[in-house]
Structure prediction request, 95 residues.
Amino acid sequence: MFEATALDVGLALLLAVVMAEYFKWRSKSKGFSWIAAAGVLMIFAGTFGVVGPVVVPYGVPAEAWNGLGNIFAVIGWLFALVGAVIVAYETVAER
Prediction:
């Protein structure tokens, strides 16, 4: 089964923004800025799992560290949701 991590999702979101810029769709919609911010937040959320084992010996509980990463992942998902709704609305309203 395919398993996507926050890093994978963040890269996919940023790749979507790059493709939108390449095909000149990004200039038509402000929602791609939200999607780009979501990509950055998701990549940041994915780094908590990588850096977590490094900071645990310094007194930071692993549960707190993973919870912080989950918070950034949820915020990134919400940004992606808002961006997708804006892009969809502006695409439909363009007619």
